[in-house]
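Duplicate of earlier report; Phospho-sugar mutase input re-posted below.
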Amino acid sequence: MPAETTDIDDIREQARRWLDDDPDPASRTELQAVLDRLPGSAPDLADRFSGPLTFGTAGLRGPLRAGPNGMNLAVVTQAAAGLVGWLAAQGGTGPLVIGYDARHGSREFAERTARIATGAGRPALLLPRPLPTPVLAYAVRRLDAVAGVMVTASHNPPQDNGYKVYLGAQLGGALGAGAQIVPPADAGIEAAIRAVGPLTEVPLGPPGQVLGDDLVASYVQQVASVIAPDGSRDLAVAYTPLHGVGAAVLTAAFARAGFPVPGIVPEQAEPDPEFPTVSFPNPEEPGAVDLLVGLANATDADLAIANDPDADRCAVAVRDGGSGWRMLRGDEVGVLLADHLMRRGVKGLYATTIVSSSLLRAMCAARGLPYDETLTGFKWIVRAGGGTEPLVFGYEEALGYCVAPELVRDKDGISAALTVAELAAGLKAQGRSLTDRLDELAAEFGVHHTDQLSVRVDDLRQIADAMARIRAATPTALLGQPVDTAEDLLPEADVVILRTATARVVIRPSGTEPKLKAYLEVVEPVTGGDVPAARTRAQQAITHLRTEIATALNL
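Output:
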């Protein structure tokens, strides 16, 4: 018998066993249709059974489809049963709180998780409707839950969904209370998931308790209190939730804080899992905020703000001469927020990641404030410093900001948007802007220009090959300067860092998408107070650096 036939027969048998255990009639019908199309559907079937979605520090994330290598009710049932079993094995007591966004399947997955928790004898608290991820992270702390589950795929394409886990103080400790899981919890939960027996034998209990709007009102009240009560509120803001779940909560927070309610892009105001007006629901992607800029121009807004679909990220656009607008880089928003908090006298630990700008480090050094740098991801940022100093602010360049760690120990696009508005309104009252403040920081610390080389691949082997290539043939010079250090973070992380006297490159695979990313930074001193000239030199240098790294990666 040919090997190909044997493989198809094996996968067909796996699929039939899956069908017998799948609790969802719709996905059983979907998978049966794939079986009926054999042998033509063999590649599709093989991909669905190439392995289970792995539960890591980001939880689960994958395409909505039948089979173990997809997000579906069977996979969620197994994940929820494993999580609940792991919580019990750790001696964790208290409720499991569950949130969900407006993507396809999110509510169903959340409700199934609640019934599995109650079936195991654990109270389940379900958020009252599709809500932002930071509301779930807040609820874990507010309700003293043993853990939290958020069903979301954040800014992934419409066909994806995901499943993130947060731990409460009991199992996460003081630094991890309401934060995403880190090792070894992820491996422990993954092992518990794989140990789950037949899904038909997983007990389902009652639907749990649906929380009231008082929890959301509490979050809004607390977020509004993050900013100073006596600052200027004269600011016109254009806003988009990008078809996600942020609009109602963000507008409520702005109103509670005394700001005019932002104008919302009408075509993107309501949650829509198809994300019909954007090719990719991520404010970082080209074209994603075109409608927002149009609204900002039409309403003569002072500022334009976008959340990603689950509202844990915040993008900010500013006027760039006439009717033009420029999206600020995540690093620019990060240092603006940090500088604002420092000027307000907020003392404590400021933190960012190895791929973010080094400007925050320079600011903290000059102002005598503690600083720490972590691996990428807010699960690490909120644990920065190991508890030696209280964290007061953390950010990552991918539009994630934590301005109130005592409320939400994760990135929060709502509180970040409100804090940016506070800063912008204060500057407007002085006849100045966010770009003026950025120029002040550049004049003091030099232009820290950052950019990113991001390559999406169809075959993950391309990423592995590129990482192997940069390790085997590490550049010895960049921008005509010797590479002073070449740091390889294996086995802790698949990251390579190259540094020269004025440049830094951090190369790593994306943790959530099939992308290889190279984070580029050039530091250009400002001479004679001429910030524009320094920015021009930095832009030219970063362009050359991008070309050199692309060549070195052969991508």
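Confidence is low (pLDDT under 50) at residues 1-5.

Merging into the original ticket.
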